[in-house]
Amino acid sequence: MIAATSAQDELYREAAEIYGAALERLARAYEADAELRRDLLQEIHVALWRSFHGFDGRCSSRTWIYRVAHNVAASHVIGQRRTRAQTLVGLEELENIADSQSGPVAADRNHALNRLLKLIQRLKPLDRNVILAYLEGMEAAEIGEISGLSAANVATKIHRIKNMLARQFQQGGSES
Amino acid sequence: MNELENPVQKLWQEQPVEGIKMSVEEIRRRAGKFERRIVRRNRRETVACVLVSGLFVYFLIGTHDLLFRISYGLFIVGMFWVAVQLQRKGSIRNLPPTLGASSSLQFFRTELERQRDAVRNVWPWYLAPLVPGYLVLTIAYAIAFPQPVRWIGVLAFDVFVALIFLGIWKMNQRAARCLDRLIDELNVPE
Predict the structure, then answer these.
(1) How many domains would you assign to chain A?
(2) Packed helices B24-62 and A2-30: angle between N→C axes, nearest 10 degrees
(3) Nearest by CB to B105, which of A72, A147, A152?
C-alpha cells in the first residue's frame, strides 16, 4: 500500500515537473477567468495525482496525462455551460468566421496570443482538445489516442486548424 | 513529437506561464478539501430534508385525522427519496480516478449522457415521490372542509402546483433535448 502510494506520488511529481507548463496552457485555453483558471488547474493536478493510482501503463504517460487534463477541463466546460450563455462552435464554423483583427504572429506576439486564446475558447471541448494537442506539437496518432477520434477525423480537423490559423494569422495557407 | 511547422505552435508553446507548482502534500490537502466539500453538500441537503420533514412530523403529531396523517407520512417518505436521489445524481461529485483510461470522446459522451438521463427522468425521482402525499392531502382537505368555497381554493391550489410540476418537467425536457443534440454531434463522423 505504501509502495503504491509512493509510486503514485512519484509519477505525479514527474508529470508535474515535465508537463506543468503545458497543463497551465491547457487550463488557459479552457478558462478565461484567472480565478476560475487557478481552480481548474488545481483540479487537474488533483485528478492527475488520483489517476496515477490506477495507471496501468497501457498507454504512454503523456497520453494518460493529457486525457486526464482534457477530461477534467471538459467537465469544467460542461459545468460552466449552465451559468454562461456563451455558445461554443465547431472547427468547421470557426473556420468560416472572418476575423477583422487578423494579422501576422510577428507583428505583436501578445496581441496574437490573445487572439489565439479567444479563438480556442470559442471551440467545443472536443475540437479544443484537438487544436491544443496540435499546438503542443503532437502527432495525429497521439491526438487520436487522447481524443478518441478516428485517424481520418483527426486529419480533417488538423487540416481545418491549419487553414484557420493560416487565415487568422496570415501565413499564406496550408499545403495539406 | 512534430517539428514545429507552424509559427502559431511556437507562439503557443513559448507563451509565459506562471509556473504554478503543487507539492504532493498540497495535492492531498486539496483532494481532502474537495471530498469534504461533497460531504458538506450532502450534509446540507440532509439537514434541509430533516427540517422540512420535521415540519411534516409536527403536522402529523398535531392532527388526529387519519388521511392527513397518511398524507404527511407520504410527504416525509417522498422528501427522503428526493434527498437520496439528489445526493446520487448531484452535480458536485468526484471525477472517477480512471479518467486517464477514457478518451475525451468517451468521457464527454458519458458525462453528457449522465446529465441527460438525470434531467430527462426527473419525473420518477424528483416529482413523482411528492405526488401521493399531495393527492392524499387534497382528498383530506376536500373531506374535512366540504364547503364549496374551500373546494375552489383547493382546486386553484392544485392547478398552481400542477403548473409548477409541468414547468419543471418541461424545463428539464428542454435541457435533455439540448444535451441530446450535443451527444448526436459527437456521433456524426466528419
Answers:
(1) 2
(2) 80
(3) A147
